[in-house]
Structure formats: structure tokens, C-alpha cells
Amino acid sequence: MLVGIMEFQTHTLPNGLKVLLAPIEGAETVTVMVMSGTGSRYENEQENGMAHFLEHMLFKGTKNRKTAKIISEAIDGVGGQLNAFTTKDHTAYYAKTDKRHFDIAFDVIADIFLNPTLPNHEIIRERGTVVEEINLYEDMPIRSVMMESDILLFGQNHPLGRNILGPKKNIQSFTRKQFLDYFARNYVAQNSAICIAGAFSPTNALRKAKTTFAAMREGTAPSAAAYEHTQTEPRVHLKYKNTDQTHFVLALPAYPLNHKDEAAADVLAAVLGGGMSGRLFLQVRERRGLAYYVRADQEQYSDIGALDIRAGVSNTALKEALVVTLAELQKLKRTRISDEELNKAKEYVKGTTALSLDTTDAKAQFIGHSVLVRGTTSGLREYNSAVNAVTAADVQHVAKELFKTERLNLTVIGPHKDSKPLLEALKFPSK
Fold first, then answer.
1. Is residue 193 domain-shared with residue 241, that is, in the same domain?
2. How far apart are alpha carbons 286 and 295 in whole angstroms?
3. Domain contains 219
4. Is position 223 within any domain?
């Protein structure tokens, strides 16, 4: 989804670090986040999993706070939240507290980002934790099917197609030197931002940022391997698992970040999977009872995107659900949607975007992503304007451009071994 967020202040320190400030009148909380524009996409095959593992390690001790316990107690002691996340193109660390404890949140996050010690004994111990996290997601087909879908869509030879968590063999082999090298290469001022949202003084925050991060390590922002999609025929990937429900993802390569048709693609996704009145929900779940969940989402990167249609269906209803789904996509190619459905989809997109940004941590995340990954300072007003400008003809144009047989990628997790009947059904009519 195109990231539109409230207006925010952007400052750049002499070393290149961005300081993004989004004060919110009436807020009771504040989130301090430090984000780096790097993630699993910036790893080679031998490093796969390091960005995520390193995220764990930054909480294991700093020069000023020697242990993980001391770090966590600083935020727990004021009833706050301390967390982090790793994606394919950015990684972030944040503390969210009552507005009275801004200084504590800022100091802890700055400390773990600037001064981690990465103790070797903690690396050895944390290997087990990361492996169990991998096992956790493997046991959750609703999550792991998305990872498998990326392998099929992007290919395992490209970083976009690899699991963010990495393979277990990598996790067991990483050394402290590798972490230090990765950290020094990727966590540089020119590739990072301090993102603060909520109740705080912008003047005080900027002063603290200038003082605390003045000597942050500098370096050239890392570059990611370019991606070019070259698929020429539909593809099916089955992962056998003895489950009571089949999970599938129908993925199509779509538009990258900042593409001119991005807002129209968001509206198209809403028409298909927008809540309980989207076309797929009505056709697959309500009218046929084939699924409990069915949805359509977009994932976007600098040079490629993906439109993912996913559902959890009865093991015996997979092919029927696929045929029904493809029929709905075909309808969007053939017939323009009504003004009523268009307006409903637009309001759904704008409304869910606003709801997704309803907390200070969400706001901090998205202003960081906007600047570091998307490369824009546009606000929610600009995004809503782009959505409002979408026409029924735009939606049909996107459907015709994206919904082609040779672009279809079906990933399935469940008790299935024969891909032939699925591959036979994986096509759009020629007319």
C-alpha cells in the first residue's frame, strides 16, 4: 500500500542522519524509533538471516547498559514497550512510553543503536531462540505460505525470494566478526533515521538528536541487488503438510514503489479483498463457504511489487476456490466497476490507511519508511488525493496489465502432492 502519513518535520544532521519529527496534539504516548534502510534484501546467500539475528543482538547489552535485563528494565520500569522488527528493506528499533518518559525512551533506543557490544556468549545462546522462531512460523501455515510464495515469485537465488529469518544452518554458523562487519556496513548515518511520533517537544528532540548522534558512524548507504521479473508461464509450488486446512497464495508481479498506477492498484486490491464486502469474500466465503479468510494485499519494493491473493480453504475445495478466484479477476478485466463500487473501494483504502496509522509507533514506522525506503516526504493529504483521482478505467487498466496467465504464481501448503490439476486450472480465458 502506498504509504501516506501525516505531515512531519524532516531534518538532516551534518553526518547525513535524518531526524523525522511528528508531534501529535493531544497524544498521551510517544514513540522513539531508529530505523536503518537495510534488511534481508541486502544480504548475500551466506548472510541470509543476519539482519534479523542482529536485531535480536542489539538488545543483549551496550557499553552503558551491560545486559539485556538492564536494557529491558529501563523501559519496563515506566510501563513502556520495547521492540524491533526486520523487513526485506528496513529494520527498526523502538520504545513507546507514556509522554512523561520521552527522555528514557530516547536514551535507551539511542544506546542500543549506537553502542551495542554484541557479546559472543549471547550470540551462541540466542541461536536457539532464533531457530525456535523459525520453527514457530513453520508451524503456522498462514504465515509460512507467504514466505513460500516469495520463493516462487522472486526466486530463491535473489534476496527478495529468501526468508527474512534465514536458514537454520546460517543461524548456527554466524560469528561475532560477521555481525560486526554487517553492522558497520549497514548501520551508517547516511542510511538511518530517528523517527519520533506522539507527545514531545520537537525543539528538545532535535537538540537531543544533534548531541547524541553527532558522532554516529558514517559510510556509504548499502546497495541491494536489482530485480527483474522474467516469468513466461504460470507456476505452481506445493509444500506438503498434513493440515486440516489448505492455505494458498495466488501472487502476481505488480508495481514498485512510487509507480504512477500504485493508487489504482490499491483500489483494485480493495475491490477484491476489501473487508467483508470485497468480491472475493462474497464469492469464496459467503456464497460458497469455501474459506474462513480470504484477502488481497500489495507488497512493494523499489523495483517490483506483488499482488497477493490468499485464503485458507477446505482441503477438498482448493481447486474450486482457485477457479472462483480467477473468475473474479477475469471479470475485472472485462467489465469496469460501477461508480458505487469504485467509491466504496476508495473510502475503504483511505479509511484503512488512517486506521493503520492510529498509534504513535505506527506513525513513527511509516514516516521512517516514507523517507528511507520510499524517498518522499508526502503526507496523507497527497495520498488521499491520489486515491480520489482513480477512475473505473484506471482500475480496469491495472487489471488488464497485471492479470495475465503467464504472470500467475500459486503457492499451496496442505496435504497436496499433485500439482497437475492446479496448473491446468491456473489460466485466464483467451477472450
1. no
2. 13
3. no
4. no
- Please indicate whether residue 7 is annotated as part of the active site: no
Q: Are 145 and 269 within one domain?
A: no
Is residue 265 in a domain? Answer: yes
Range(s) of the domain holding residue 269: 235-425
Residue 371 one-letter amino acid: V
Query: Using one digit for the tens of pLDDT, what is the confidence trace for 159-193?
Result: 999 999 999 999 999 999 999 999 999 999 999 99
Which phi and psi (to 5°) does residue 203 adopt? -65, -45
**Which are the contacts of 399, defined by CB distance < 8 A and separation ≥ 6?**
268, 329, 332, 333
> What CATH number does the domain containing 117 carry?
3.30.830.10
Count of alpha carbons within 13 Å of 379, Cβ hemisphere only?
8
276-295 in b/e burial notation, b at 16+ Cβ within 10 A? Answer: eebbbbebbbeeeebbeebb
Alpha-carbon distance of 405 to 170, in angstroms, equals 36
Judgement on whether residues 321 and 399 belong to the same structural domain of the protein: yes
Spatial strand order in the sheet of 29-36: 9-12, 18-23, 192-198, 29-36, 91-98, 81-86
Q: Could you report the per-residue pLDDT of 12-36, keeping only the tens digit for each?
A: 999 999 999 999 999 999 999 999 9
| Residue-level pLDDT at 5 | 45
The one catalytic residue in 55, 122, 299, 328 is 55
**Residue 430 included in any domain:** no
